[in-house]
Write a structure and sequence with these properties.
The complex is a heterodimer of chains A (291) and B (352). By secondary structure, chain A is mostly helical. Chain A has 11 helices and 4 strands, in the order ααααβββααααβααα. Chain B has one domain: ABC transporter involved in vitamin B12 uptake, BtuC. Chain B is 71% helix and 1% strand. Chain B has 14 helices and 2 strands. Classes of the chains: A mainly alpha (291), B mainly alpha (352).
């Protein structure tokens, strides 16, 4: 039982990180109907930013978190402006391939400067409590609470503010809504800013939890977060969080009770089965098709 | 206008006319294939070009097989499959295991064609795993199915200790030769081309344009999808088998998501829904990576940048939805001529 609780805590930590990344995918998809495959690499850039800030500027955790979120957020906005904006009316797949290209570019550009995995300095005091046989480190608590706070804040922004209303409106219809005076480009930029900075926050926290960063760390995690977003129903913000928690829990539980090498196999087989029964994700709705 | 530009224009017009005449000539392609086939025997025999260049040529051939088979799903059928490296892995493992453990050791070279065919058939069976979910889902959700398939294959191979587990299979005999690669490349292109211009192929295209409408026009979309996935995964398996016997070492790490991304880039670089595009895309990408080798790490910085700019200025790739006239059957050309449209295919709304 204690073992189960311990693993549940680990699952919560991993799922929160997945959820933050999946939110970025789903936000961009909701607005642009485009899968931003560079998102996993922006997560990696976030981790590297925090590594550089912590190593060279020696700033504590909160400033380095905020700085990397801002830096990567601006990078995301820049990428959208330079690479995705010219392709808004092109076939959707060209935008996806461009995103893949941007992702590969980010990986290898980082690789040029950091050819070897780097270890990240510890920025948070690690206190370990033992409650009823379950060891809880302060790091886990901080990661879980911080991501929960960010998710709630995002939910608030999307549901209660003017910007959020504009986002929902644009995801509903991209031609009429700008005619009503909603600044399309600004809203898309804000979406990218928020989405990628959430990914960067996930990167910073991931680098604290598993303190080694390398340029390819974002590939697998990015794809997994994308899967989480799709399982929840892509374009749906609450669905992304739900999908991330399902994926994270399944992964950790499989690793806990079966040989850990079976983790990917069982997690993805379950996903396949789930997609056969819910082809549009758990909270997603099938789009009506016109002929 | 100065006389210089007039001359230039004249030259360009003349070159263009030459090119069109060459393209219209139906005898050129068979001659090219024949010459290529003879060359593929002669070149390794007399070492006309160095072994390094021969190796690159073989990789170009394998990449063309992979690209054209992926193009069938992503370009002609309009799905977005990201799991092509998974099919390649299945083919590579089946072939490597046959060569290493099943066939008698002194016969492997003679049994190599059989090995490749069995690898292809085995992979085609596995392709059904992806074809069945494609009945219900499309687009991003099918992308996830193929992605999950890739991860499952990789994870499964890593967990079976009998086939080397994460260490892979080293020391496979080098049986892939230039004539074999050439033969399989031509076969893959020929089968794909005939498939596309058959009734089933027309069905594939109609699914890309609009699945519901094609159902209404009594296209048996399930049958068509199964066939397309069978053909595509068969040739992916063939590519994998050739690849395994060229690299002489396979491991689950070789066939990861980055490998899939490579094939995706080749398809979209060359252009979707085009056999000529598949050839051009695979050739350009493979050769460019080799040419840029002196740049070391920077070549992987430069390549994606070039891809991004290509996509911005030419979103359909080099040959997107267009085709060399060589690959188009005569009656199709006639029909196009009769309808007096300048392009072979003017369909739009693809790729969505």
């Amino acid at each position: 039982m204690t073992y189960l609780l311990q693993q549940a805590l680990n699952a919560l930590q991993l799922s929160s990180i997945y959820a933050l990344i999946a939110l970025g995918y789903t936000m961009v998809y909701g607005i642009l109907r485009m899968i931003n495959f560079a998102h996993g690499d922006l997560f990696m850039v976030g981790a590297f930013f925090s590594f550089m800030i912590a190593t060279f500027a020696k700033l504590p955790f909160i400033p380095s978190l905020l700085l990397s979120m801002l830096g990567v957020g601006l990078l995301g906005v820049g990428i959208e402006r330079v690479a995705y904006k010219p392709l808004r009316n092109a076939p959707r797949v060209s935008a996806v391939i461009t995103a893949l290209g941007v992702g590969i570019f980010l990986e290898n550009f980082t690789l040029v400067f950091f050819p070897y995995p780097q270890s990240v300095p510890v920025l948070l005091p690690v206190i370990v409590w033992t409650i009823g046989g379950v060891t809880i480190s302060s790091l886990q608590v901080i990661i879980i609470l911080l991501s929960l706070g960010m998710m709630l804040m995002l939910d608030f922004i999307v549901r209660r503010t003017m910007v959020g209303m504009a986002m929902r409106a644009i995801s509903w219809d991209k031609t009429i809504v700008p005619l009503l005076g909603v600044p399309l480009n600004l809203v898309i930029s804000v979406t990218f800013l928020i989405g990628t900075s959430l990914g960067a926050a996930a990167g910073v926290m991931y680098a604290q939890a598993f303190p080694v960063v390398d340029p390819y760390m974002g590939v697998l995690i990015g794809w997994k977060a994308f899967i989480a977003a799709v399982v929840g129903g892509i374009g749906n913000i609450r669905g992304a969080v739900l999908g991330a928690f399902i994926l994270g829990s399944v992964e950790i539980m499989v690793a806990a009770f079966l040989p850990s090498t079976y983790r990917d196999f069982i997690a993805f087989s379950l996903l396949l089965v789930l997609l056969i029964f819910r082809p549009y994700g758990i909270l997603g709705r099938p789009q009506t098709q016109k002929v | 206008m100065t006389s210089q530009t007039v001359n230039n224009n004249n030259l360009r017009m003349r070159l263009k006319r030459r090119w069109e005449a060459l393209m219209a000539n139906r005898k050129v392609l068979p001659i090219l294939v024949l010459v290529g086939f003879v060359l593929s025997f002669v070149v390794p025999q007399y070492n006309l070009i160095g072994p390094y260049y021969q190796l690159i040529l073989m990789y170009v051939g394998i990449n063309i097989i992979m690209t054209v088979s992926l193009n069938l799903i992503n370009g002609y059928m309009g799905e977005f499959s990201v799991g092509h490296a998974g099919f390649m892995a299945v083919g590579a493992y089946i072939a490597a295991l046959l060569t290493m453990y099943v066939w008698p050791q002194n016969m492997v070279a003679w049994l190599f064609p059989l090995t490749v065919i069995i690898a292809g058939l085995g992979t085609a069976l596995v392709g059904l795993v992806v074809a069945v979910p494609s009945f219900k889902t499309r687009g991003d959700y099918l992308a996830i199915v193929t992605l999950a398939f890739l991860f499952i294959v990789k994870s499964l191979v890593e967990n079976i200790e009998a086939i080397g587990g994460p260490r892979g299979i080293p020391g496979i005999d080098r049986l892939t030769t230039l004539p074999w690669v050439f033969f399989w490349t031509v076969l893959a292109l020929w089968v794909t081309r005939n498939f596309i211009y058959s009734n089933f192929g027309r069905g594939v295209l109609s699914i890309r344009e609009d699945e519901i409408a094609s159902d209404l026009m009594s296209v048996n979309s399930r049958q068509v999808k199964v066939l397309a996935f069978l053909v595509s995964s068969f040739f992916a398996g063939v590519g994998g088998a050739l690849f395994a016997h060229l690299l002489q070492f396979i491991s689950p790490r070789v066939f990861d998501i980055i490998k899939s991304t490579d094939f995706l880039i080749m398809v979209y670089l060359g252009g979707i829904g085009s056999i000529a595009g598949s050839i051009l895309g695979a050739t350009t990408y493979t050769i460019l990576l080799e040419v840029l080798r002196p740049l070391q790490v920077w070549r992987f910085v430069l390549m994606p940048l070039m891809l991004v700019f290509l996509m911005i200025y030419r979103p359909r790739g080099i040959m997107g939805l267009r085709e060399f006239r060589w690959f188009v059957p005569g009656y199709e050309l006639l029909a196009t001529k009769l309808s007096k449209k300048p392009k072979v295919e003017v369909t739009d709304a693809a790729a969505d």
